[in-house]
Amino acid sequence: MAPSPLTASPHLQAHLKALHSQSSVQESGLDWASLPKQCTDAFDDIMRDKFIALDQDKCELIYHVLRSINAKTVVEAGTSFGVSTIYLALAVAQNVARDSQSQAQQGRVIATEKEPSKASIARENWERAGDEIQGVIDLRVGDLRETLEKDLGTVDFLLLDIWTPLALPAVKLVKPYLRPGAVIMADNTLKADVGYEDLLDYLDAPDSGFRRVTLPYTGGLDMIIYQ
Ligand SMILES: C[S@@+](CC[C@H](N)C(=O)[O-])C[C@H]1O[C@@H](n2cnc3c(N)ncnc32)[C@H](O)[C@@H]1O
């Protein structure tokens, strides 16, 4: 078997494995077809104690992309219990450390979560993750349509792991801060293609400044480049 794609301590690897496993068990008990519409109170009530973590293979790919593009400022739309955030923070911290001799800027992962109870569990999960990811996460609790309105800096990467009606608003808020060559990854673009229709139409407009490819991960994972 190939070694783990992550440069991470055995402790952190074990922590991530346990979090993904808890998320999978929880999600296997969910019947998506019978859930209320996204972004309604009824939907949020059901999701308040759920991880809905990004799949491990997708997290690992994203970690690789971040190391490859040397991302130092990352925005995450949808943090939940902070599983994917650990990968983002690990990559950013390692990118900063790699450039430390050239007085690089500080790294930052701007994480967003609407539910305060989920945000506090995310903080506990990051604390347990240990030193490798400390000092880079800027968690903004509240509706991302407000919390992403300011203080983003130049953004290298945006993760869209959010209820689909919020994906386009997130892209519009972050777009003015994207550097040329910045990457956006959007989860479940095949499985949730109807929900993503407005986002995909926006990205595919000839003058949008974006180009995308759908990667064959479960449910579809779009990799979008800002030209
Ligand atoms: C799919 S989950 C994110 C999973 C996370 N990326 C991970 O891998 O662990 C989406 C999260 O977005 C949060 N959310 C929903 N509406 C939001 C909003 N308007 N602003 C910020 N977060 C929101 C939900 O509470 C939920 O926890």
Automatic annotation (TrEMBL):
Transmembrane segments: none
Pfam families (alphabetical): Methyltransf_24
Record key words, sorted: Methyltransferase, S-adenosyl-L-methionine, Transferase
UniProt-listed CDD domains: AdoMet_MTases
Gene Ontology biological-process annotations: methylation
Signal peptide positions (record): none
An example molecular function term from Gene Ontology annotations: O-methyltransferase activity
Listed InterPro entries: SAM-dependent_MTases_sf, SAM_O-MeTrfase
Protein family membership: Belongs to the class I-like SAM-binding methyltransferase superfamily. Cation-dependent O-methyltransferase family.
Protein's name according to its UniProt entry: O-methyltransferase
Annotated organism of origin: Penicillium cosmopolitanum
